[in-house]
Amino acid sequence: MDLVTIKTFFYDHETVLYEPTFKAEGIDYILKDQKTVAIDPLVSNAIGGIKLQVRIEDEERARALVAEIEANNSGTQLGDVIVLNGQKYEKTLEECPTCESEDIYVYKQSFFENLFFPFAKREHYCKNCKLKWS
Fold first, then answer.
1. Is residue 5 scored above 90 in pLDDT?
2. pTM for the model
């Protein structure tokens, strides 16, 4: 079976929007290297990230689906970044414990912070009610 890569993700959580949509549309897919990146995110760049692959005969339909997902989620897509007090916060899929908003951002660690403090608790920020928590 010949496969073609139609999208690449650098983090496991980025695949969350795509998997259920592809399943619902009946498009068979593989997330090559997903487990490797989930276990050790630092190797993502070295191995080229997580590759969303489909059969060649499904390529056109799959690319259209990816474009539709990205168009529909452009305002709240993971990867959105805001800056607060000089620190970068990146969009996440979590929910605010106070107002239940899904407009939540988490402190974006630098490469070196990720390298030396991979398990450090990261600060969250709710854009809706301005709550900060760890």
1. yes
2. 0.55
